[in-house]
Amino acid sequence: MTSPLRVVVVGAGAMGRAWIRxxxxxxxxxxxxxxxxxxxxxxxxxxxxxxxxxxxxALALSTGADALINVTxxxxxxxxxxxxxxxxxxxxxxxxxxxxxxxxxxxxAAAELTGELFMVSQSRRYNAHLWALREQARVLxxxxxxxxxxxxxxxxxxxxxxxxxxxLLDMAIHPFDTARFVLGAEPxxxxxxxxxxxxSWYAGDAAATxxxxxxxxxxxxxxxxxxSPGLETSWNGTWRLSAEHGSATWNGDDPPVxxxxxxxxxxxxxxxxxxxxxxxxxxxxxLRTGVPPMGEVHENVLSLTMVEAAVQSSSTGARVLIDDxxxxxxxxxxxxxxxxxxxxxxxxxxxxxEALKTS
Length: 359
What we know:
Dihydrodipicolinate Reductase, domain 2; 40% helix
């Protein structure tokens, strides 16, 4: 019998507590520590069951942990994950991979240099209905247009209310990543417009429409609002795929519906697990088998790049090429890197795009 994976959770906020509950529910994983810069928060989340500390990597090493789950704020993703990887600890990190694409490329290099697994929990991929939609996309043949509509009006309060781009930076990475997953295609360019409805309680633009050109010529169009009361969509949004042999729709909550002229048959149901529990299961399986999981850092970077490109397009009013975003991020990463070995690897990449894997 394989021993449970011993993990330390770093970050004891609301999402950190959700991860702690998820670890407790998984028989293949044991919680051995909780870390947070606020000692009281760590102690409260741990409930006296495991050691706590303010330095997650130090705590992981002292408790003999096998891996670290990074649930810190985005600004801390890069330093915490870098320290863990170079300490010999595989990392499962909350999305986004890092605060910027430049930092994400630094983490790609760190994972390559250390040989340790760094997986990003793009948790909304772990949804059986989404996998069914992806299978329907295969049956439907060559895709032409994929759309998402997302309309909700949550009043979170706190940092989201003061963000410059609350919808794009806080939420849009989920559907952008999902589009890559469903289409099996990668972004080429984007044109995006943002605005803030007059009744919005957000300081920054809370509504946006982004049109992506994806590889193969397919278009992905996202329209959303964070301040749209009434007739709200699912948290997953509502989806429509138009393809060569028909169409499919998904309301984000129930099984997708397909109408097709294809003679192909969709495969049976897939159980990828559910949201962060699915991410944790995939991470554990990857460490035990050596098979790269969804969300491995090379595969995940382009989802964050879509967000950064959309923000740039909205800010400049121009169409933005994904390759241009990657090249600028690469130059920034090289200039900002403080570790000589990471900087040397970053400098040696002939093409940033070639260093990244597709989904």
